[in-house]
Specification:
This protein is mostly beta strands. The model is unreliable at about 90-100 (pLDDT under 50). Helix content is about 10%, strand content about 45%.
Length: about 170
C-alpha cells in the first residue's frame, strides 16, 4: 500500500482561531490538491483521508480541513506529512521532472540498474533540485535531478533510474 501513495508536502503550525494550518508543497501539486479536495495522512500502517474545505494563498499557504474548527483540532495534525495516491499524479509517468518532490521514498538506481540508495529528501536549490540519497553504508549524498538524467521511473516499484556520471558517488 505504501507504493500507492507519495509524499506531497507537510502541514505546519496552526494559523488563527478557525482551525487553519500553514502548509507547503509545490505549485503543481497545490493545483491537484485544490481540484481533488482530499489528501491523506499516515496513521500507523493506514492512510486516512482528510477533506479540504478551502485553501488560501496569501503570504503563507493555508489549508482549512473539514471538521477542524479551532487551533486545538489543527494542532493534532501539525507537522504531519501529506500524501496523495500516485494515480492522482499521472504526469509523473509522462514528465518525470515536473514533480521531483514525489520521488521521496523511492529507491535510486543507476543506468546499469545498480541500487544507489533511497531518496530521503528532495532539496530545491535556485539552479536545480537535488535528491538527498541515503547510501547502504549510512552516508548521505546529494545527486542532481534533471529530466535529461532520468532513464525511467517505475511508480509501482518506487524506483527511479538515473544516468549517473562516473565518479559522482565516489566523491
Amino acid at each position: 500500500m505504501l507504493k500507492d501513495f507519495v509524499e506531497i508536502g507537510k502541514l505546519g503550525k496552526p494559523f488563527g482561531i478557525s482551525g487553519k494550518l500553514k502548509f507547503s508543497c509545490e505549485d503543481e501539486i497545490l493545483q491537484v490538491l485544490k481540484k481533488n479536495k482530499v489528501f491523506f495522512l499516515k496513521r500507523g500502517a493506514h492512510y486516512i483521508p482528510y477533506f479540504v474545505q478551502y485553501i488560501e494563498e496569501t503570504h503563507d499557504t493555508l489549508i482549512k480541513i473539514e471538521g477542524f474548527d479551532n487551533p486545538q483540532d489543527a494542532k493534532s495534525c501539525s507537522g504531519n506529512t501529506l500524501y496523495l495516491p500516485i494515480k492522482d499524479l499521472p504526469e509523473i509517468k509522462e514528465k518525470p521532472g515536473l514533480y521531483f518532490s514525489v520521488l521521496k521514498g523511492f529507491s535510486m538506481h543507476d543506468q546499469d540498474n545498480q541500487l544507489i540508495g533511497k531518496i530521503i529528501d528532495v532539496v530545491s536549490m535556485p539552479q536545480q533540485e537535488l535528491a538527498s540519497v541515503s547510501l547502504s553504508d549510512g552516508n548521505e549524498i546529494l545527486i542532481p535531478l534533471h529530466e535529461s538524467l532520468i532513464v525511467g521511473i517505475d511508480p509501482d516499484q518506487m524506483i527511479v533510474q538515473l544516468e549517473i556520471a562516473e565518479g559522482l558517488i565516489d566523491i
